[in-house]
Design goal:
144 residues, alpha+beta, three-stranded mixed beta sheet, 51% helix
Length: 144
C-alpha cells in the first residue's frame, strides 16, 4: 500500500511541476500568471477529491464538469450527457482541459459577454468495425 501511495504522490508532483513550468517558467512572471497557477492547482485538487469518492479508480464526468465550472454562474451552462466514469489517469487531464476552456471563455468568449450560454454535452458515438464505439464530446456556445 505504501508503494502505491508513493507512486500516486510522485505522479501528483510531476503534474504540479509540469503546470508550474507552463505557467511560471517565463520571464516577467506577474500576478496574473501566479493566479493562473493557483487556479490550475485548485482545479487539480478538486479532481482528486472526486477520485477519493470512488477509491481512486474513477470519477463521474458530469460531476467533474460541474465541479470545475463551479466558479462561474450555473445559469451560463447547459450540461448533459450519458453517465461516464472516467479512468483515474484521465480525470486530471479532463479537469485541466475544462478549466482552460472555461478560463478562455471568461476572458475572450461566451462567458465574457452578457446573455450567452455554453452547452457541454457528450454521448456514446457510433464506431466502425475497426475501432468500435467511442465517446464523443461537444462544447459549444449559444446566444442568449
Amino acid at each position: 500500500m505504501t508503494g502505491e501511495l508513493n507512486h500516486r504522490v510522485k505522479n501528483v508532483f510531476a503534474t504540479v511541476i509540469a503546470i508550474s513550468k507552463q505557467t511560471l517558467g517565463r520571464e516577467g512572471t506577474g500576478q496574473d500568471e501566479v493566479d493562473a497557477f493557483r487556479e490550475r492547482l485548485t482545479s487539480m485538487a478538486k479532481a482528486h477529491d472526486l477520485l477519493t469518492h470512488r477509491d481512486w479508480q474513477r470519477a463521474d464526468l458530469s460531476a467533474l464538469v460541474r465541479q470545475v465550472l463551479e466558479p462561474y454562474p450555473a445559469e451560463c451552462f447547459e450540461i448533459e450527457g450519458i453517465p461516464v466514469l472516467l479512468p483515474q489517469k484521465a480525470v486530471v487531464s479532463f479537469s485541466l482541459a475544462i478549466h482552460e476552456l472555461a478560463t478562455n471563455a471568461a476572458k475572450y468568449g461566451a462567458l465574457s459577454v452578457a446573455q450567452r450560454k455554453i452547452s457541454i454535452s457528450w454521448r456514446l458515438g457510433d464506431g466502425d468495425e475497426r475501432r468500435g464505439a467511442g465517446y464523443r464530446c461537444m462544447i459549444s456556445r449559444r446566444s442568449g
